Amino acid sequence: MLAGVILAAPIFSGCSTDRLVARGASPLIERGVSAMNRETDTELARASIPATLKMLETLLLLDPGNVAYRTQAAMGFHGYALGFVEPTDPERARDLYRRARDHALVALEDAGVSRSTLNGDVATLERALAKLDARALPALFWTASAWGKWIELQLDDPARLAELPRVEALMGRVLALDESYYYGGAHLFFGAYYGGRAPMFGGDFARAARHFDRAAELNRNQLLWVDVYRARYLLRQAGERDAFHAALSRVVVAPDGADPELNLANALARQAAAALLAREEELF
């Protein structure tokens, strides 16, 4: 054992002790994320997730360039904001989405998209994105997801609206690389993107419907958020109240699916569906 440690020493001589400690926690973090995804008690999840997020940020203080931790932090802050904060405190959710985006941007820069490229003209950005392969999918997806939600909560700010083409370009690259990534999440994004606006403002209801249908097909109708987003963005905007009611009613009574990794996401989707149904009269 001692010999093994001595022989290993030159291999790790370029790594700081802090980074070694942080990276040693990786299996625990990965299993913790899986355990949280499998949780069915939303109140237990609500109470537990903040500690997990702070643990991730503590590890990132030790190892700031750890791309896996950056994407896990982005995913965690995005999910926490969406499932637990936005329904009652949109202003705080906005700040959490920005925090998620900032973590994801570090991973995106590591993948080869610099901040200057991201903030430059869209054509240059698209050329840079075209060079990325599937290894960049987590950084692309979570940057676009968090950035999109951050903008959604600031639609009265022209500066934020001007950023939408960049978000669209990022998620478009996800779609091109692997449309099935994260349960067809890029299709879910574009369903909301085209369904949540009137046609005169760039909305396209038929296109949105195709994206929602494809997302459902890719995840075999196991992700309940597809119907929640379809109702919240497309059916509400299109004034289809009966379809809105039917879609959300299906979600509320839907049983647990075959994929335990979707337990928490689907439990939160049921809550979101119930909340939208309670506002149906107001929304229509």
Short précis:
This protein is an all-alpha fold and 284 residues long. The chain has 17 helices and no strands.
Protein model, in words:
With 284 residues, the protein is mainly alpha-helical. It contains 17 helices and no strands. The longest helix has 22 residues. It starts with a helix and ends with a helix. The N terminus is likely disordered.
Secondary-structure topology with pairs:
Elements lengths: L1 H7 L8 H8 L1 H12 L4 H21 L4 H19 L4 H22 L3 H5 L2 H9 L6 H16 L5 H4 L2 H14 L3 H15 L9 H14 L6 H13 L3 H13 L9 H16 L1 H4 L1
Give descriptors for this structure.
284 residues; globular; mainly alpha; Serine Threonine Protein Phosphatase 5, Tetratricopeptide repeat
